[in-house]
Amino acid sequence: MSVIEQIRSGARDGLARMYSAYRTEFIGWALKQFNCPKAAAEDAWQQAIVIFYENVVSGKLQELSSSEKTYLFAIGKNKLREFNRTQMREQELGDFDTLEDADPEPLDQHLLEKAVACLDALGEPCRSLLVEFYYHRCSMDQIVARLGYRNEDTAKSQKYKCLVRLRKKFFEATTKKIIE
C-alpha cells in the first residue's frame, strides 16, 4: 500500500517512515545547497512533511508522478527559497523600515534633506509608491487602486525594489560626503 493510501486510511506509519528515511539526507542536502542554518533546514523538512500530509488529506494530491523523496525535497526546496528571500530582504533593508516609526526630531536635518533628495532622484513610480506607503500610510490595496498596479503582489515587489534602490542611493550620498 502506498503512503498516500495509508494516510487516507488513517494509518501514519508510512508518513513516519518517510519522515525518518529522508530527514538526515534532506538536512545535509539543504545545508550544502542553500548554506542555511540547520534550524532552517529542519523547519523546511517539517513543513514539507506537513504539506505532503495536508495535500493528501485535502485530496489535492491523488498520486505521485515522482518518488516520495523527490516530492518532499521539492517542497522543502521551495520552503528554503522562501526562507532565503526573507533573509535577503531583512538583510538588505536592515533598519530602514524602522525609520517610519522613528521620532523625526532627533534626525539630523542634513540627513533628512539627503533622504528627500534621494527619494526625489528615484523618480516615478518609486517616489509615489514610497510616499503613499510610508508617508500617507496607505495599504497595498489602496496603492494598487491609486497607482494602477496589477495586484498587491506586483505593488509589494515594486515597493521592495524601490526601497533597495533608495537605500543604495542614500548610502552612496551619505558615504560620499564622509569620504570627501
Structural overview:
It is a single chain. Helix 3 (38-58) crosses helix 4 (68-93), helix 5 packs across helix 8 (152-179) and helix 6 (126-135) crosses helix 8 (152-179). This protein folds into two domains: 3-93, Rna Polymerase Sigma Factor, Chain: A (Orthogonal Bundle), CATH 1.10.1740; 96-179, Arc Repressor Mutant, subunit A. The longest helix has 28 residues, at 152-179. The protein is 75% helix and 0% strand. The chain contains eight helices and no strands.
Q: What is the secondary structure topology, with strand pairs?
A:
Blueprint lengths: L2 H6 L4 H22 L3 H21 L9 H26 L15 H14 L3 H10 L4 H8 L4 H28 L1
Helix pairs in contact: 2-3, 2-4, 3-4, 5-8, 6-8
Record keyword descriptors for this entry:
180 residues, mainly alpha, Rna Polymerase Sigma Factor, Chain: A, Arc Repressor Mutant, subunit A, 2 domains, 75% helix, elongated
